[in-house]
Amino acid sequence: MPKNTTKKNTKGTKSTAPKKVETKKPTVKKVEAKITEKKVEAKEVVKTKKGKKESRVKALIAKLMDNTPFVVAACVVVLLLATLILVLCLKRVPKTSKGEEILATLNGKTITANELYEALKEKNGTEELISIIDTYIADKEVEITDEHKEYVKEVVDYYKEYAEYYSVDLATFLANYVGLTGITTEKEFSEYVLEDYKKTVAITNYIGEKASEEDLKEYYKENYSDKLTVKHILIEVDAEAEDKDKADKEAKEKAKELIKELNDTSSKKLDSKFEDLAEDNSDDTATYSKGGLIEDFSKKDVVEEFWNAAYELKDGEYTSKPVKSSYGYHIILKVSSKPVEKYKDIKEEVRTAYAESLLSEDSTLFAAKWDELRKEYKLSIKDDLIKKAYKKTLEEATKVKEEKTEE
Description:
Number of strands: 6
CATH topology of the domain at 226-343: Chitinase A, domain 3
Strand order of the largest sheet: 4-3-6-5
Strand content: 5-15%
Largest sheet: 4 strands, antiparallel
Number of helices: 14
Structural class: alpha+beta
CATH class of the domain at 226-343: Alpha Beta
Order of helices and strands: HHHEEHHHHHEHHEHEEHHH
CATH architecture of the domain at 226-343: Roll
């Protein structure tokens, strides 16, 4: 399976890569393009640092969507409990002969605060309790930085843009299109995203800290390399063509024709000629306006075919034949290369990347590692009902992992 990577789009709507949210009001065309992008596989060539950040934004958004049922339930629980506390504070609540506070009465029935608590506990008590526990741990484990705040802003802006597209306010969009009820302001949503993100950072750091030196060095060896700067032209194969072989042949022939044009160009004019061909012909909308330029990428950032071809070139040399990958046919001109950073100099970066890779490969790992971290904080659940529900949740996560392994 080739590595999907992220492009920085500058214009055009061909690319299926996620774009950084614009600060100005988006046009309908731009937003429609983004909606289309969510439905198809990304076809990018290289993952830049900014692209990695956008990928994390997408991952968090997916996580928010997966957590929607819990969020809805949690918001309801919090709202009910807040209302209960407010009522108790504002007025004296009558009590039963056993000293239980009475919340409501009707013919033949008295509803006490204990009854409401038990009902809420049975429905959503485990999720709400664990959320409180994890928030406490995340606050202890993670110190918020400006980078974290900027990341949260990107996620919020992403949703605000879609809300604007649908001509509704953010709260309405979150409730009707995402399922996040109980959030009424941008500030509340930012706080929710930040809390969720802190939990992700906390568990990523935890996994990284537990990693052995051997595992980290092995990951470094497999994923880190020299950094290359190239210019490239991508000729896509028409994915919707009825005759796939014909479409593939046409893309390859077009790439060959462009190489012939380069062959007929003097060495002094080669660079500018390549840029012109990229701007006029490349299907990589992230780079064609820059003459196909891709800067400082390493082996782990691109598909294998692209890396192998680029790495073998000398500075100033271009590929004599089209290079085929899952994205189409590439023509690559090598600009320069930098030696890989030493492991000891980027160890913390490797540690984080290693943890993120494990989390992306195993969807059940997040829950399992949180269980470990809670135990390190000496978590002891006293209520039998919640303890049983918590145990069941962990067992279900393990079961999902086993089923995926069997597949």
